Amino acid sequence: MKSLQKHLDEMYTYIRNNKMMIPNYGEMHRYGEPVSTAFVESTINEVIARRMAKKQQMQWSRKGAHYLLQTRTAVLNNELQDKFACWYPGFSIGEQSDGKVSAMAA
Q1: How confident is the model over 6-61, as pLDDT tens digits?
Q2: How many whole angstroms separate alpha carbon 30 and alpha carbon 83?
Q3: Sequence-separated (6 or more) residues with CB below 8 Å from residue 98
Q4: Rounded Cα–Cα distance for residues 85 and 90 (Å)
Q5: Residues 84, 91 contacting (CB under 8 angstroms)
Q6: Whose CB among 10, 42, 54, 65 lies 3.0–4.6 Å from 60's, allowing a Cys bridge?
Q7: CA 24 to each of CA 19, 28, 33, 38, 65: distance values in angstroms, whole numbers, following the listed order
Q8: Which residues, 6 or more positions from 93, have their beta carbon under 8 angstroms from its beta carbon?
């Protein structure tokens, strides 16, 4: 029973911390917006396939793959520079502020 309570607490914490990112499918349906995971699944497959392709001859730990996917997603969303600015407030890329860093990482 204690394990169940621990998992429920973790789930509650996850939902509380991520509630702004969890779509309200009922509301989307009421407004006639498409409700599909096809776009998300396709994006995830693309993100994973680019780096985890067999021809790359590289193997990653689950933790390493998780960090890699976070980075690739930030690149694809054009958020990498903003994330670096949050993580390292004094960080500056100088003349390359036109997105070249994201292009290089892609």
Answers
A1: 888 999 999 999 888 888 888 988 999 888 878 778 887 777 776 666 566 565 66
A2: 34
A3: none
A4: 7
A5: yes
A6: 65
A7: 10, 6, 11, 16, 29
A8: 81, 84, 101
What does R_g of the chain's alpha carbons equal in angstroms? 18
First CA to last CA across the chain, in angstroms? 46
Give dist(CA 100, CA 106) in Å, integer. 10
Over the stretch 70-88, which tens digit does the pLDDT of each residue have? 888 888 888 888 888 888 8
Q: Residue written as tokens 């009922």?
A: 26
What pLDDT is stored for residue 51 in this prediction?
A: 63
Concatenating the DSSP letter of every residue in 10-73 gives: HHHHHHHHHGGGS--HHHHHHTT----SHHHHHHHHHHHHHHH-GGG-----HHHHHHHHHHHH
Q: Identify how many contiguous H helices and E strands the chain contains and give both numbers.
A: 6, 0
